[in-house]
Amino acid sequence: MSKFFERIYNGIIKENPTLMQTLGMCPTLAVTTSLINGIGMGLSSTMVLIASNILISLLKKFIPNTVRIPAYIVVIASLVTVVQFVLQGFVPALYSSLGIYIPLIVVNCIILGRAEAYASKNGVLPSIGDAIGMGLGFTMALAILGFIRELIGNGTIASDGANALVTIPGYTPASIAILAPGAFFVLAFMIAVMNKIKKAKGMKPAEVPDYTTSDGCAGCAAVGICRPDKAPAATEADAKAKAAAAKVAAAKNAGAKPAQVEQQEKKSVGEVTAEAAKKTPAKAEAEEVKEAAADVKAVEVEQPEQQEIISAGETAKKAVASAEDDLKEIKGKEDV
C-alpha cells in the first residue's frame, strides 16, 4: 500500500507529466483557455489512464512483445471511444469545447508512456496508483494553466461561455492570454516556479528529456537504423554476416582459388551470428584483420602460378614472331 501512495505522490509532485516531464504538450497548450476545459481534459485523460493501466497490467503476460505497442493503442483507443460517447451524452457543452482533442487522447504520450514504462511491468494495484498520480498531476497542471489564462484573458473564473462562477467587474481582458502565445508564456512561468521550488528543496529541476539517448531505444524496431550503437547483439551479428558476404565477393574479384572461395561461402549466417555474439568489439576487429591478412596471403600464394602462365604465353608469342620472320626471309631469297 505504501508503494500505491508513493506512486500517487510522485505523479503529482516529483514526476508531474506536464511541469516536470513536459509531456502531453498538445492538449496542455490547446484546450486550456478556461478552467473548465482544463479540468475536463485532465479528468478525461485520467479515466482513460486508469482503465488502460488496469487492462494492460492484467494482459501483460498475454500480449506478445513484438506487437505490444499496437495492442496498447487498441486498448487505449477503445477506452477513449467510451469516454467520448459519455462526454457527448452527458456533457455536450464540454464535448463541443474540447472538440478534436478528445479522440487525440489516444496518442497522448502520457497514457502510452505509462502503459509501456510502468503498467506492462508491474501489478494492478501499483499501476492504478501510478495512473491516479499521473492523471491528477496532469489535471492539476491543466486546471492551473486554464485558471490563469482565463482570469487574465477574459476576467472570469470557471466560465462555460454563457455563465461564469466569478466575473471581475470593470476589467479589461488581455486577450493574448487565451491565444497560443499566452499558453506558452503561462506554461513557462509555471515551470519556472516549479523549478524554483524544487531547487529550494534540493531536487532536480524540470528538463525536456532526450529520447534519442534513452536506454529504451534498444527495444525499438528501428534501432538498427537510427541508433546502431543501441542495437542488440542480433543486429550486430547481421552486420557481421553482411561483412562476411562482402569479403567472399572481394575474394572472388581478387582471383582467389575456387576451393578457398567455397570454404568461405560455407560459413553460414548462423555461425557468423554466434561468433559475433561471443566476441567483444576489440576481438572482432582483430579477427577481421586476421581474416583480411589470410585473404591477401592466399592471393600472394597464387600469384607465382599466374606469373608462370603469363611467362609461358609471352614465350609462345616470341616463338611465333621468330617463325614468321624466318618465313619472310626464306620467301625473300626465293624471289631473288
Distance between the termini: 125 Å
Low-confidence stretches: none
Task: Count the E strands.
Answer: 2
Helical coverage, percent range = 55-70%
Mind describing the biggest β-sheet?
A: 2 strands, antiparallel
Q: Supply the number of helical segments.
A: 13
Task: Outline the structure in words.
By secondary structure, this protein is an all-alpha fold. The protein has two domains: 2-209, no CATH class; 230-335. It has 13 helices and two strands; from the N terminus they run αααααααββαααααα. The chain has helices at 2-14, 25-30, 35-59, 68-90, 92-98, 109-117, 124-154, 180-200, 223-226, 233-253, 258-265, 269-278, 281-335, and strands at 156-159, 164-167. The chain has a two-stranded antiparallel sheet with strand order 1-2. Helix 4 crosses helix 6 (109-117). The model has no long low-confidence stretch (mean pLDDT 77).
